[in-house]
Amino acid sequence: LQLVESGGGLVQPGGSLRLSCVVSGESLDYYAIGWFRQAPGKEREGVACISRSGGGSNYADSVKGRFTLSRDNAKNTVYLQMNSLKPEDTGVYYCNAVSLATSRWGQGTQVTVSS
What we know:
There is one protein chain. By secondary structure, the chain is mostly beta strands. It is built from no helices and eleven strands. The chain starts with a strand and ends with a strand. The model has no long low-confidence stretch (mean pLDDT 95).
C-alpha cells in the first residue's frame, strides 16, 4: 500500500487549494483516510477523516466550514478541498490510510498560506 499526496503550494490568505491522496497497491475500499498537518516546530495534528464508504466524516474545529473531504473509491483517490485559507493553515499535509491491520502514511505535501 502506497499513498502519494499532491496539490500543495503557495496561496494567499482567503484562497483555495485541493489536495489529493492517491492510494496504490490495494483498493481504497478497505481504508478509512485521515488528513493531518504539521507546522514548523509543532506536533502533527489531525485535520479531517472520512470513513471507508465516505458516508461519515469529521473535521477539526479549526477547519470546520472551510475544508471538505471526499473520496472517489473508483479512482483510489481522496480529496481535501480547502477554502478560505488562513496563514495558520500553513504546514505539511499528510494523508493516512487506516484499516484494522494497517496504517500507512504518505510523504506529505507543503501548503503555504502567505501574502
